[in-house]
Design brief:
Layout: E1 7-11, H1 12-21, H2 27-30, E2 35-39, H3 50-53, E3 61-65, H4 79-87, E4 94-98, H5 112-116, E5 122-126, E6 146-150, E7 157-160, H6 161-164, E8 172-176, E9 183-186, E10 196-198, E11 204-208, E12 215-217, E13 222-224, E14 230-234, E15 247-248, E16 254-257, E17 261-263, H7 268-289
Parallel strand pairs: 1-2, 2-3, 3-4, 4-5, 5-6, 6-8, 7-9, 8-11, 9-12, 10-13, 11-14, 13-15, 14-16
Antiparallel strand pairs: 16-17
Length: about 300
């Protein structure tokens, strides 16, 4: 019977002990760990050590909850040492970030975390209050199949058009509660170079509670979703269309809304535009009924 420990979580004091004193656990124990949770690392001066992660040779998943990292896993050392450490790090397939509030970008291309996430399949980001977008990390997300982003209040866009090409393996994309988001894919002004964006594997797209979302993509690109058959758009009152360029969704037959299941009689763009028109008509009717004053409804 295999009784090896496969999951471990460390709070701030224990993380510091592992980094500063070499830890109290054997190397053999760490080699069996598949899931590492780092919880409530609130010390601004704490540097997450890459050397520490070398012990987790079979690590598959990292979860960071309520941490104060401004940049994920910074490494302090000379260039040669950094390169040697990076090559010994495990490559995970799942990363979850919750309440990592001071982080504005996931990581830069030169960061050792870029190496760790090369085989990443699932990325979940919740309540990261200062995260702007995921563009800088995009080149490490080529194998990503599931991306979930929720309640990142400063995020205006998910990714830029040139970086979106890296998400070609994505199967599921869910975005919710990002109150400042205006579009999912922002134009780099590169329509001449990247005139076509293809999400060849995307099957499920969910947009919920995006109060300022105007469009999935406002640039003049051709968007192709050859596998998309599950779309949900709920509580996105400002949405005007899905995209400004040509759009192909050959397998999509309906759109889930907060009210009903809407058949895609024409195409996704026309369906979104119709939903927007109905929303505007209802708001106009409410205003007329209330003598020119709009009522606010909690959804």
């Amino acid at each position: 019977m295999n009784t090896a420990l496969e999951s471990i979580f460390l709070v701030q004091k224990e993380l510091l002990k592992q980094e500063d004193q070499g830890g109290q656990f054997s190397i053999d124990l760490f080699s069996h760990i598949k899931v590492l949770e780092i919880i409530e690392n609130l010390n601004d001066s704490t540097v997450f050590s890459f050397c520490f992660l070398q012990r987790f040779s079979n690590l598959e998943k990292i979860e960071m909850v309520d941490c104060n990292f401004k940049e994920l896993c910074p490494y302090e050392g000379d260039v040669g040492e950094k390169r040697d450490v990076t090559m010994l790090l495990p490559r995970i397939n799942e990363l979850t970030l919750k309440g990592v509030d001071k982080m504005t970008h996931l990581w830069n291309r030169g960061s050792p975390l870029h190496h760790i996430c090369t085989n990443l399949q699932t990325l979940r980001v919740y309540k990261c209050g200062n995260l702007i977008n995921i563009a800088r990390a995009s080149s490490a997300l080529r194998n990503l199949t599931t991306l979930e982003v929720g309640y990142c209040k400063e995020m205006v866009q998910l990714i830029t058009s040139s970086k979106a090409q890296c998400l070609e393996q994505l199967v599921t994309l869910k975005i919710g509660g990002c109150e400042m988001m205006r579009e999912v894919i922002a134009s780099d002004g590169d329509e001449a170079t990247y005139h076509e964006i293809i999400f060849k594997e995307l099957k499920c797209l969910e947009l919920k509670g995006l109060q300022n979302l105007k469009s999935f993509c406002s640039g003049n690109y051709t968007l192709k979703f050859p596998s998309l058959d599950d779309v949900t758009v709920i509580d996105c009152p400002a949405i005007e269309n899905f995209c400004n360029g040509a759009l192909s969704t050959p397998k999509l037959q309906e759109v889930q809304t907060g009210r009903d299941v809407r058949k895609c009689t024409w195409d996704l763009n026309s369906t979104i535009e119709q939903l927007n028109k109905e929303e505007c008509d209802e708001m106009s009717e409410e205003t007329d009924k209330n003598g020119g004053h709009k009522e606010n409804h909690v959804r």
